[in-house]
Amino acid sequence: MKVSEIEMISPQTVEECLYHLGEKDKTSRFIAGGTDAVVRMKDGAWLPDTWINIKQLDSLRYIKEEENGIHIGPLTTHTDIVHSGLLQKKADVLTAASKEVGAVQLQNMGTIGGNIATASPAGDTIPTLFVLDAQIELTSLMEKRIVPINEFFVGPGRTVQAQEEMITNIIIRPQTENEIGIFEKLGPRKAQSISIVNVAISLKMGEKSRECLGGKIAFGSVAPTIVRSEKCERMLTINPLHDEAIQDIAGAAWKEVMPISDVRASAKYRRSMASALLERGLYRLMKRWDER
Amino acid sequence: MSKQVEETQAYKDKQNLQWVGKPVKRIDGSEKVTGEQKYKTDYNYPNMVWGKVLRAKYPFAKIKSIDTTKAEAHPDVVCVLTHKDIPGFNGFGIVTPDQPVLCENVVRCTGDAVALVGAETLEAAESALELIEVDYEVLDPVTDAEKAMVQGAPKLHPDGNIHSHVSIRNGDIDKGFEEADYIFENTFYSPRQMHAFIETEGGWGMLKPDGSLMIQCPAQYGHRDKLQIARALALNPERIHVYSSPNGGGFGGKDEITVQIHLALLAHNISGRPVKIHLSREESVLAGIKRHPFKVTVKTGATKDGSLVANKVCAIADTGAYASLGGAVTALAIEHASGPYKIPNVDMEGFCVYTNNGIAGAFRGFGVNQVCTGIETHIDMLAEKTGLDPVEIRKKNAYRQGDVSSLGHVVKSSVGTIETLEKAEQCDLWKNRDLYKSQVSEPWKKRGVAIATSFHGVGMGLGSPDYGAATMELLEDGRFKVGVAIEEIGTGNGTVYAQVAAECLKCSLDHIIVVQGDTTKTLDSGTISASRSTYTGGRAIATAAPNMINLLSETAAEILDVPKSEIELANNKLMVAGDESQFVTYKQICEILLDKRKSTRVEGHFYLPKEKEELRNSGGAPHHLYGYMTHVVMVEVDTLTGQTDVLKVVAIPDAGKVLNPQGLEGQSEGGAVMGIGYTLYEDVLIEDGMHKTKNFTDYIIPTIRETPEIVTIPVESNEETGPFGAKGIAEVVMIPIIPAIMAAIHDATGARINRLPATPERIYHAMQATKKPSLISR
What we know:
The complex is a heterodimer.
Chain A: E1 7-9, H1 14-21, E2 28-31, H2 37-43, E3 50-53, E4 63-66, E5 69-72, H3 78-83, H4 85-90, H5 92-99, H6 104-109, H7 112-118, H8 126-131, E6 135-139, E7 144-148, H9 149-152, E8 153-155, E9 158-159, E10 166-172, E11 179-186, E12 197-205, E13 212-220, E14 227-228, H10 230-235, H11 243-253, H12 267-290
Parallel strand pairs in A: 1-3, 2-3
Antiparallel strand pairs in A: 4-5, 5-10, 6-7, 6-10, 8-9, 11-12, 12-13, 13-14
Helix pairs in contact in A: 11-12
Chain B: H1 3-14, H2 29-34, E1 49-55, E2 61-67, H3 69-73, E3 77-81, E4 106-107, E5 113-119, H4 122-131, E6 133-138, H5 145-149, E7 162-170, H6 173-179, E8 182-189, E9 202-207, E10 213-216, H7 222-233, E11 240-243, H8 260-267, E12 275-278, H9 281-287, E13 294-302, E14 308-320, H10 326-336, E15 345-354, H11 368-386, H12 390-397, H13 417-426, H14 428-431, H15 433-438, E16 445-458, E17 467-474, E18 480-484, H16 493-505, E19 512-516, H17 533-560, E20 567-570, E21 573-576, E22 579-585, H18 586-595, E23 601-607, E24 625-638, E25 644-654, H19 661-681, E26 686-687, E27 690-691, E28 709-712, H20 737-749, H21 760-770
Parallel strand pairs in B: 1-12, 10-11, 14-15, 18-19, 25-28
Antiparallel strand pairs in B: 1-5, 2-4, 2-6, 3-5, 7-15, 8-13, 9-10, 9-12, 13-14, 16-24, 17-18, 17-23, 20-21, 21-22, 24-25, 26-27
Helix pairs in contact in B: 7-8, 10-11, 11-20, 16-17, 17-18, 19-20
């Protein structure tokens, strides 16, 4: 298949999209912001018979609070997320991560649905979806199903999403009043960089000084898929999160991750950095909590 | 504009100069900023043929056969060319033409060109490449420069793998080390930096109806490209027209032939249609030339009072598969390897070695970047060991104009090192460094402030032709067309040319039209490289100007009927001295000259001054002219991760008199950022001859977020031979910042990084290594 021979269609409704997805005799792929799709097309990796252009499907671009959580449409751009007052208040960890995706130009084009569907181990928004207990709604012509985020990814670039399915909603848990979150990223430079390691942290704080009632920690780029650090999470509640406790928790992180060596960093460094980013993130979170 | 530049300005005003020394806007500024500027690779034509190059599949292999039958059968293919279709000599290279235009028997790197395709569309050209069948016998690649030098290593070229060996010896090195109280010895490794210009290699060409050849492409020496094309195509160079300006960035990466000969071959096989080749970024990473990675072992001896007494250097440069300018790069490195100092005993040698790791060639700094780190690091170690001030040590050892340098020659041109160091000592960042260092943004971060100084030759050195030429033509509207072949590659040299011309001719800047890089309209004036274009082009214009003034005055004297000696040059006109009512305009003069069928064009020629004698076996040392530079930098290191930010840079160049302060600031800031990239981020990784770095995704160049506050404080040593006292600036601006950042990281953390780039991972591990072993983990 040559690039010039690929057909592109621009359906106006979700139903129309699903109809095209169901066509068995042709391969197809979605293109939304194009920040992954175009690059991979030029690399020759993604050359479907048909591009289904969904960029203009505004019905899938929304951020709203419902009874069962905050609903984010898959075509919501990273910039939409960064600017959302609702998310800044109730999902600060996600707005923080969206700010770290590539650079402003990429944030303007790239969508959260695309970040999820591409399923890169280094995808910046994905760890935050783990700490916010995201649920992914997958829709096909025949049915609609909800998949918890921790069951969604199978490996690098692979998910449980079937060819005839599309992501139609992302439901996240709103953070409560005493919950705070942070996203820490280590890249080779400040902008336009792919994570060497990243971590999303969300903590529920108590009445006493730096008392942590519980929290979630998810690492990206340290394994084929996101790693929830359950051991570190358990340690969060042992002692108030003063500097020593933070160091102890961070010190346990390197055992929780299974990174590889690649052109960006060695496995050894990535392991150390899992601890370093957790330490830095918890310190910054506690400073912010003290100053609230 | 910074305060310091304003002060310079005030000085210039006193000299009563109208244009020189003024921060004039770039003559090509608005079209560059708005994007309206058309570069050669922006041109497309309806009947254009697209050219693509088949690159080698392996870094080292014998070619057993090439079968183009299937590619030729492709319906949209116009032609498929191989080595058999080269009419002339199948090779190119500025010094040693050892790189095949199209490989015949062997491929030596994955950037090697094996065949050319011309097709109706780019896509058809790309698919046709896949239809060319090349039968290879794969060989084990030679990937380490040191191993390549060993006897028995597979030979990449008939004369072996050592392309060149240069050395400079002065004094008695053994005696020097005997006198030394301290000896420092370290090995430094430098990255394979990529030019990363915004416009990748490319261009277009065609045969004109009269059978002559035209090539339009970004390049750094169109007149030499003509000769290289002529040699390969067996053409008369006079029948080749190269138009090579403006460039979307050069930095040395377009000094060598890029696509010119391939375009010429295709143009001869497509019946007069235009043909275009434009490398994708991936292809540019693979096949474009890079900076030579060096391994440099340096041993420096010093006495307790801070005198440097001995310096021994051995540098090994990996030039990849072909020489290009590798020999010259290695020679310049050795010439500069002991810094701008007067070390009495030196023993320096360099080897330029072939491997199967891509191709290396010219790049801003030209070898000095790689060697400046050794001597500067050792001076800092000496300061640390003796407690002496690092600036004082440098001042004590720096040579002044008229002194004998480490090379043993008397430096006759201007030398600003000590003035740059004095300005550095007085600058806010250095004076208040302890305060700045205490202001860390988070408790686990550490700051360091450091200084380094270096220098860089201006012009080609001994053994290479080095001349400039300018034409000046009076136009019918009274303006002047100034032609200098030296291309615009982003430096703003055209603006400087306009300033020099307007100053000499006493006319306004917008009366000067500058033509650059067109071989049919300009005289050969050498390369845009070697920090030479302001100096050379400026001098050539200043040499042409008196000829023009003479022509104008003679004509004016005739018109006004007064002796020529009474004619005076005023603003945009000539008048009779002391009588403003009697004058003629430049426009009137042109009319008279044209009426009389007289030429309105003059020329100016200029040979760069050179030293009398070349140091034996040095490959061209010493230079007559050098630019000098000191950098002060502050870094902040995140000790948890090793992430390092350069926060402040003070850049103190001695480029002779500054012709355009705004241009100088632009060069200084661009150089600082490129130096930051070299030191902290950039490297093209090649393993077993195959590129691990393929695109900008994994090649990290600084963005605006990595760009610190940069203050430029010029020191203006008057260079008597230069145009209005100027020297050159383009390369030295990225050099001392490299060891300065390395030293600042050490100042912050105690860790020394001798392998660049100093990535967060390398800094983190170096910091870990400085910690004392302990039973208790942190």
